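debug: dumping io for the single-chain case to check the tokenizer round-trip. Nothing else runs in this session.
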Amino acid sequence: MKKRILALLLTAALLLTPALAYGGGAVYSHSTELADGFSYSNAVSYDGEDRYETYVLENRPGSAVYPVYMACDTIYGGFDLNEMLAYAESRGLNVVAAVNADFGEYTGVPTGMVVENGVYKSSPEGNNAVGFDSGRAYISAKPEVTLEFENEDGFSYSTAHLNKSRTGYGAYVFSEYFSTVSTRTSGGGWFVRFEVARGEDLALGGEVELTVTGISSDGGAVPIGEDNLVLTASDSADLGWLRDAFAVGDRVTLTVSCPDEELAACDYVSGGGDLLAVGGRLTDSEKWNSSITGTHPRTALGVKRDGSVVYYVLDGRGAHSAGATLEELAADMLELGCVDIINLDGGGSSVMALRLPGSDGLAVVNEPSDGKLRDVASYILFVTDAAGGGAQRVYLDQAGAYVLAGSSIELGFSAQDRGLRAAELPGAVSASAQRGSVSGNVYTAPESACTDTVSFSSGGLRGSGELYIIDRADSLSVTDAATGEEIERLLLDAGESVQLEIGLSRYMREVLCDLGEVSFSLGGDVGAVDANGLFTAALAPASGELKIECAGLERVIPVQVAFEFSDMRGHWASGNVKRLYEQGVVTGVSAAEFGPNLSMKRCDFVLMLYRAAGEPAVDAAGSAFGDVPADSYFASAVAWAAANGITQGKSEGVFAPYDTLSREEGFTFLYRALNALDVDHVDADPALLASFPDGSAVSDWARVPTATLVGMGVVSGGDSGLSPHGSLSRAEMAKLLDTAING
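debug: decoded output
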């Protein structure tokens, strides 16, 4: 009765978990049939605060695409996805998709079971498993597999450990599939080497005949070698009697037993994590791995009642996707119709790749949380033996895209052959739209939000694709077409042009639109912008703004034309000032003048260093200097400089913000700020200053900073030397700072 109550409570808790994409929370969902019985879907959902992005492959019974499982080239050591795909291709496999599989040790050894193409390569070690056979998947709860050695005298010994990192408990068996180097064991131990008769491989439920060829107690690690097995135990396992039971020349039978006959019949077997559901019912969550029950990226596998298999990846740990708890993962997969669900390795390992229509290579469709591909222990690969035969399917390249209402976009079409490789379109494409219109290959969206279906044919092959028409976006970006950089403001010379690229997104997905839906307007006589988004600055100095409106959104970009200060034209530091001004590091003494020959004030130089560091948050009210008011324009900068050891002030509690900055003070401030500015440097020998006629005049506290900047090429000195006690001009400051941070 207690178990029944617990099950009901767990089911009730499951129903209260936030809805992910397939639990009713999807704001976007699109599916593509990649081959008969093999489809890919992508969904986005929100729970009111966080975003979630999910990727699903579904493999139905009878499909020409089927899963295989591979633990890299050897059990020891992992591969990233690209390495795995290259390895699989070298084995002659036509891989059309892939997901990460079992958890792995830090050595890359899979935590659970490994069977590849019928060969038993690694033991389950008390973990759950999933087997693959003829496209179907079978989940096994903690299968037991034993290896029993029996010699001619009737002595027998059983162990469960195959190709796992050796511990101090029990005996371990290593085959050639573990590592091409050695057993990778360490510390004291013994080894019994067997030669495998006829080179047979281990198989679940199989037997192999062995001959003892060597016995050693040297410890450490030993090579394994082709057609050999090694039985070993560490000294701490206290199994010396087992070693002594064998003698060189003994004939031994090794039997691999797997009571789960359905698992034993599978050609491929992967280990896995917790069983989240069995028969459509949630398992006891108190028995799940508590170290991973929190919110993380996820990879999981689920089996439907009809035998279809769902391979599920959910991104996490990023703004684009928050991840999920195991309870939320289970709820989403139950909504997908899965009845048996097993969790696989998630976190930074979660990855899904597939061959998209029109492409020969595989593309990673999710965003791994490490920001790059991680080496993982094993993969489930989806392969097909079908090949060639010309185009078999045609696709709309833009299928699943958001399109702004009223926009006209150019459509593209692709074809794939039986092996899901890119193929030539079999003929001219004829297309029509259910709600919008198609002329040639140009699609014009209807004026209101809806889902539109584009139907098309090519050489007798027919296809269709959905477009999602929206009338509002939630983000508008403006970038420079030449550099791809986001434009926050335009600082242009007279007559200079920049091609604007307008980007729209909804729920962080791109929205396709044409520039006819974009409205440009100018405030001030700053130039002109044409219908294609080419902005050309006026021929005279001017200030104003560019307003861009589209899809209910508005961006206002400040514009300054011929912003070069009037007193910097032709000046030796004009380039330095221009770069720093564009970066928001320096400003002028007025709107028109920079004041290059004016002496730097201590407060202004510290302010410029602070801006160059990105203006990190700091408690300005906590300044240790009584002459720096909390409401002064430089208060935060001085507080930051003091906190980072850039300045200690002129005396106790005195910063002297308006005092003129000497050159050696400026050198020292800049030197102390290099770490905060992420500028690599190595302290130089003060003896370097001897090359300057006034090098000996540099104060002791400034000698290392000055020498270091000289060694970096930031300080070069003048005809009279370094002039360490002279005042630092604003132009000199600009050259120093620009050289240090921009090179």
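debug: round-trip ok. The CA atoms of residues 114 and 122 lie 5 Å apart.
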